[in-house]
Specification:
Shape: elongated
Order of helices and strands: HHHHHHHEEHHHHHH
Strand order of the largest sheet: 1-2
Structural class: mainly alpha
Distance between the termini: 79 Å
CATH class of one domain: Mainly Alpha
Strand content: under 5%
Radius of gyration: 25 Å
CATH topology of one domain: Serine Threonine Protein Phosphatase 5, Tetratricopeptide repeat
Number of helices: 13
Oligomer: single chain
Number of strands: 2
CATH architecture of one domain: Alpha Horseshoe
Largest sheet: 2 strands, antiparallel
């Protein structure tokens, strides 16, 4: 055998042994190598992020966390269809961990409210009192129902949500968005007086909340309090210009339902 042929055979053997050794990696070792010490070293939107995760999935395509991280990056770059394909894989391989995440993404990112309701209802059967992304399952269900114009259902869920987070001595542990969407549900049913009460509760928690001021001003207009409404519209715009809007982390990537688009006003 000539030296050149021997060298080629040697390289093939080494590559085969190396590949065989990689196949023996545990799921945790694959995550460490290709995600934590791989994809995470690159920007989320880069092809390198996707490439490193794909390398890990070649070794074990059943690792739900890799599918979730692959899909999450796509969804934050508005590649909704491709991102959801990945999240579907994550749910397939670990539904207890990733079903609620897919439900959240369907609600806030993809805007597939029927799918989000289906997922959240399944989540409630598995663990009814859990939260995802700082809010309860019922909170997101109510947002879905508002977006589907099923306002009575949304209002009912949000009233329960608001009441369950009250302390025995009058303490209020609600997130400001609970009152905001409760007010929206009432405003959309043409009950501006009740809506104003809940917008004020949201503003008591988050005093510069521009979106609540905007819709409260809309409610004041409905009550023909025109000067008060104009003053509040101006305040809302000033607060928005100062950066005060919905401040959930994911609002950095995706506009939430009823978050005011001032460029379109």
């Amino acid at each position: 055998m000539n030296p050149r042929m021997a060298q080629v055979i040697s390289l093939v053997v080494i590559a085969s042994v190396s590949h065989a050794q990689e196949k023996k990696l545990s799921k945790d070792e694959i995550v460490d190598r290709y995600l934590k010490n791989g994809a995470w070293y690159y920007p989320m939107y880069s092809q390198d992020w996707q490439r490193k995760i794909d390398e890990g999935l070649k070794l074990d395509s059943t690792i739900a966390y890799l599918w979730q991280q692959k899909g999450m990056a796509m969804l934050k770059f508005m590649k909704y269809q491709e991102g959801m394909k990945c999240l579907n894989k994550a749910v397939k391989f670990d539904p207890e961990k990733w079903l609620e995440y897919r439900a959240f993404m369907n609600c806030i990112y993809v805007k597939d409210y029927v799918a989000a309701i289906r997922d959240f209802e399944q989540c409630k059967k598995m663990s009814p009192l859990k939260y995802v992304m700082d809010h309860s399952y019922n909170f997101y269900l109510s947002v879905c129902y508002i977006q589907l114009n099923q306002l009575g259902k949304a209002e009912e869920l949000l009233e329960v949500e608001a009441n369950k987070n009250k302390g025995p001595h009058g303490e209020d542990y609600n997130n400001y968005l609970t009152y905001f969407y409760l007010a929206i549900a009432r405003l959309e049913q043409n009950r501006p007086e009740e809506a104003i009460i809940d917008f004020d509760k949201a503003l008591h928690i988050y005093s510069h909340f521009s979106d609540a001021k905007y819709y409260k001003a809309t409610a004041l207009q409905k009550l023909w309090k025109i000067e008060d409404a104009k003053k509040l519209f101006d305040e809302a715009k000033a607060d928005f210009d100062a950066g005060y809007t919905i401040n959930d982390t994911n609002a950095n990537y995706e506009r939430y339902p009823y978050q005011v688009n001032w460029k379109g006003r």
